[in-house]
Amino acid sequence: MNEKAESLQKLFKEKMDEIKLTSELEGLRVEFLGKKGHIADLMSELRSIPNDQKKEAGQRINTIKQFIETSIQQKLEELKKLEEQRLIDSAEVYDETFPCDTNTGSYSPITLVQREVEDIFLNMGFSIEDYSEVTDDYNCFEALNIPKHHPARDMQDTYYLSNGQLLKTHTSAAQNTILRKYAADLEKGLPLRAVFPSRCFRNEKIDACHENTFFQMEGMMVDKDISISNLIYFMKTMLSEVFQKDVTVRLRPGFFPFVEPGFELDIQCLICGGEGCASCKDSGWLELCPCGMIHPNVLTAGGVDPEKYSGFAFGLGLTRLAMMKYGIKDIRVFNSCNLKSLSQFTNSSFTVPEEKKED
Amino acid sequence: MLVSINWIKDYVDLDGYDIKQLISKFTLATAEVEDIYYMGKDVQKVVVGEIKTLENHPNSKKLHLLTVDVGDKIVNCVCGAPNVAVGQKVAFACAGGRVVAGEIGKATVAGYESEGMCCSEKELGISDDHSGIMELDANLVNGTDIKEIFPIDDIVFEVDNKSLTNRPDLWGHYGIAREFAALTGQELKPLDLADLTSDSTAKVPVTVNDTEHVYRYSCLRMANITEHVSPMTIRIRLFYCGMRPINLLADLTNYIMMEIGQPTHAFDAKKIDHIKIGMPSEDIDFVTLDGTARKADKDTLLIYNNDEPVAIAGIMGGLDSEIVGDTSSVVLESANFDGVCVRKSSSRLGLRTDASARYEKMIDPELTLLAVKRFVKLVKDIDKGAVIDSQLTDEYVKKYPQITLSFDKAYVDRYTGIYISDERICNTLKLLGFGVELNDGIFTVTVPSWRATKDVTIKADIIEEITRIYGYDNFEIATTRSPLKPVQNSAARLESDEIKDLLVKKYSMHEVHSYIWCDKKKYKKLGIEVEDNVKILNIESSDNGVLRNSMLPTLLSVTYENRDFSEDFGVFEIGRIINGTKADGTCDEQRHLGVVLFSKTNSERNLYYKAVEIVNCIFEQVKHSAPKFRKITPAHAWQHPKNTAAIIAGDNEIGCICALHPNNLSKLDKSGAAVCIEMDLDMFSDAKALNIEFSEPSTKQATYYDLSLVIKPGITFAQIEETWKSMNIAELDNVKLIDTYEKLGIKSITIRFWFSSHERTLEMEEVQGWIDEILRKLSAIGVSLRV
Predict the structure, then answer these.
(1) Which of residues 339-358 of A touch B (CB under 8 A)?
(2) Residue A351 predicted with pLDDT over 70
(3) What is the domain-level CATH number for residue B120?
(4) Who is most buried in A252, B346, B551, B619, counting CB within 10 A?
């Protein structure tokens, strides 16, 4: 029995040494440990061994069996490691710089700027209103204190429609509707804070600087005791948010029939910081948005008592803002529908113009 | 408008002020200054010189060799001017000095040394005249700096005319001087005016036939005028302000217009005996003094001498009655016409003049008399022999009402949000010419005539006067004290944003913005006819005259124009369309989503199913619901007759999916495919959104069963689906289409049914029972198991 056990162990060692792959190990396991394997054979021989030797012989077989099991297990782990190493050694090295097609969609740059600005206004407690593109003489002019024959009607070359309506020339056309919508709220002590982004139309020849179809955003705030001081504070705060830096503003008198006093608001040039450069035509200032205290006639037309309430309104050229933010020189890009230009606007990231330092 | 500081200084003492700073204050308080020009900065070391000797250049017919006495020495000069003569006093630019053209150095000209230059007016920058050298008064002392003799040094600034639109009073130097007076606190000096008394008892007869458009007509005759050239000071000022000096009388009318803003017109008195003002009964031809024949229509206000038109009121005089160099007797017209009438006539005639620009702004009728008095004063100062040859004619037809406004201090405080003292308010208004009284805290303000034609009418206008002079830069700024009010973004707006995100981020589409009108030419390329709709009356190109009634034709054009952008792409736009007019005649404007899917590699079939998927996805992601579809007859000729389907939300058709008519598709791309989606987003927004009703997934083993079915043509999946839906099997979790197959015209699909129960593991017999029932129902509609 002992000799048999010895030789079995020897045989196992020899066979084990020859094994190179994990797949061969299973065969070896079956050959030795399987139901009809060498160990089973030895076990069956136990029956013919005298009783007093049985215990010792049994232990001997068990030792061998354990030895074989442990060896196979060890071998398995060794081989696995080797095989893994082989896989690693033979693995393809991937190239992250290899071109890929993200096949990304894109937004209109107006959408991106508009969302950004709308978020700012929402955060400041403004509601965002919707208004039609077609409107009428009353809303676009009359209710805005622009009577018939007023030069302002010439100034804004209007597209008139065959049904007597017109395409709105400015977002101010929504002022009357908005005032009416919130007049009752004012009486309840709730302030009116609203912006309305929308498309406007002017009968103009198109070139790099002029479009007949463009986006504006109108804003209004009305309450008791709204003052010029509030207007300047608000515009400065709002524009600092829009440009993500502290902007310096200045107000000049500006004439718009629907405000009194009316202002042109300039911001200190973001490119040169006021020193004067090509962007600001050497003036250090950029004319950015018209604004003013809402004209009493406009409030009255909107059902708001100008003796009790006052407010301010402003216009922000979204198209112009998008041009400034993205460095778009030609306004025709926006309505071009040219995907070669527009597919660049995949998300809202953009950089605020940097101040240029002198070398 | 160009403004001369020298001129302003006639009326306000600006000594000791930093002019540049004042001008920037003016920008912030009054009107935008676009540019500042420092006149005379290029004229240096130009002195009075006397030509002592003159010799012809031996080799040149044009050149002369001069010696010139420049006060402290005699210098040589080679001069090419034709009018040079011995004894003449000239403006001599010494070597080391400058003229407009550049620096003057010692040079050798045609072989002779030249130490300076005799200057023309143009070289001194004071006129366009370059015909010869400028001849100076013989009494001038040699060596005197030319700038001590003529006001060549000046600061001229250009005000943006647009920012003066609402300020008729600022269209002359005197009005601008008033602003400078208010900005500095200095006194505004009165205009130097003549007394109009005359020995003559004659009066120029004036008949105003149109009392609607004539506010005031003043005129006066002057005679015995022998001077014909304006003094240099006047000529330089006019030239600096962008006008060309002509002759004394024409220059003076321009000078007065530039000074007080009142246009005047000087008629040759020989041509005038009875002035009548009115509109012609029919269109007439009229030659204006610029020599152009013009057609004046029946709405054009004209000035007649008897029945002969002599001027277009407020715009331009006629050639026939124009004053010429030797006119010695003039009738000066100083009138005020209706601004709208002048503006409209001027735009119909295509003739905008300095006069019409001023009348358009509705200038103060009080100015007419001032202008006459100022004219007489200037003529008499220049020409001692000139006399007033008539009594003043002054037809004051229409007067603007006197405006008085009252308000209390609390109003100012409330509107400005800052503290401005009573004294400061009163002072500011007085400096601007307003009358102010303050009694018991109430300000009573009288608006001066020059601000009362349209500019200042309500108390908010007074706030502007106070605050702009106070300076917006000096405002202490503060946030509002308004209460909080929660705001919500509107659902429609949020939904639009979600749809945009979905289309861009999930389906890699590109958002575009296109015009609201149809583009006939572009549509034509795709064989799409522009359909009848509301039109734009005054658009430049008649090809764009009709508003769009669908987003898709334009988006198909966009697709066509971008067909080389990529093999496969999608474009979309959320915008407005006009669906004709509503019952009340107003436009039926709708907010629509338009989508075009285009591919050169994918089949139309695949695109169509992609479009269905997109619509489903929009419904699922935004509304947590599912749309229905129904085949419809196309509304437009370019839609596919068979593959056009309505998108249905609830019971409403809210849009459509369509393939293109083969005719249009072949024009879009010979081998490509395109499928469109259009949806009314307001209707979509109104559609009901379903809540998420959470259900715990079963923990028991789920069982699936696959059925491969053969489908008869004409049977839709919705019909097939109805079979098991009608059975309401609680244990049926999910149904998935896992394969579609078509061979020899026979269509077959494989569907996987998932069954599970919360309580138990399902027995096969149970499942088989349901499947058998489904198959039985299917066979009733002609769907059988594939064998």
Answers:
(1) 339-340, 342-343, 346
(2) no
(3) 2.40.50.140
(4) B551
Intra-chain end-to-end CA distance of chain A, in Å: 97
* Neighbour count for residue B380 (Cβ, 10 Å): 17
Answer whether residue A155 shows pLDDT above 70.
Answer: no
B639 in reach of chain A (CB within 8 A): no
Give dist(CA B787, CA A5) in Å, integer.
63
Confidence of residue A358 (pLDDT cuts 50, 70, 90): very low
* Domain annotation for chain A: domains and CATH numbers: 2-90 (no CATH), 109-342 (3.30.930.10)
**B289 and B353 housed in the same domain:** yes
User: Does residue B583 sit within a domain?
Assistant: yes
**Nearest CA of chain B to the CA of A259: how many Å?**
9
Tell me the one-letter amino acid at B468: R
CA-CA distance, B262 to B216, in Å (whole number)? 12
Cα dihedral B754, B759, B765, B769 in deg (nearest 10) = -60
Whether the pLDDT of residue A353 is over 70: the answer is no
CA gap B35, B23 in Å, rounded: 10
Rounded-to-integer distance, Cα B36 and Cα B688, Å: 64
Domain ranges, residue B120: 44-152
DSSP per-residue string spanning A10-33? HHHHHHHHH--SHHHHHHHHHHHH
**Nearest CA among B118, B58, B129 for reference residue B88:** B118
Give the B window 151-170 contacts with A, CB below 8 Å: 163, 165-167
Q: What is the DSSP string of A232-292?
A: HHHHHHHHHHHHTS---EEEEE---TTEEEEEEEEEE-TTTTTS--TTTTTSSEEEEEEEE
Tell me whether residues B166 and A255 touch, CB distance under 8 A: yes
pLDDT at B544: 87
Among residues B497, B514, B515, B516, which one has the least CA distance to residue B505? B497
Q: Which of B166, B461, B535 sits opposite A162 (nearest CB)?
A: B535
Chain B, window 40-79: residues with a beta carbon less than 8 angstroms from a chain A beta carbon? none
Residue pair B259/B251 in contact by the 8 Å Cβ criterion: no
For Cα atoms A278, B18, B123, give the angle at the middle one, nearest 5 degrees.
70
Confidence of residue A44 (pLDDT cuts 50, 70, 90): confident
Residue B36 located in a structural domain: no
Q: Is B360 near chain A, with CB under 8 Å?
A: yes
Which residue is closest to B360 within chain A, CA to CA?
A: A151
Pairs of CB atoms within 8 A across A/B: 229
Q: What does the radius of gyration of chain A's CA atoms come to, in whole angstroms? A: 42
Q: Given B340, B374, B396, which residue is the final one in a domain?
A: B396
pTM for the full model?
0.86
For A130, which of B347, B492, B535 is closest by C-beta distance?
B492
Mutation test of the interface with chain B: which of A227, A237, A319, choosing the one with the most B Cβ atoms within 10 A?
Answer: A227
Phi, psi dihedral angles at B404 (to 5 degrees):
-125, 130
pLDDT tens-digit profile of B454-512? 899 999 999 999 999 999 999 999 998 888 888 888 889 999 999 999 999 999 999 99
B273 close to B305: Cβ distance less than 8 angstroms:
yes
Task: Indicate the Cα dihedral angle B5, B10, B16, B19, nearest 10°.
Answer: -10
The overall average pLDDT reported for chain A is 89
Asked if B379 and B314 sit in the same domain, the reply is yes
B418 in the same domain as B273: no
Number of domains in chain B: 6
Same domain? B459 vs B556: no
Residue B38 lies in a domain: no
Is there a domain that residue B189 lies in?
A: no
Residue A320 has pLDDT above 60, yes or no: yes
CA distance B67 to B50: 8
The CATH number linked to B512 is: 3.30.930.10
Which ranges of chain B have pLDDT less than 50? none
B712 and B598, same structural domain? no
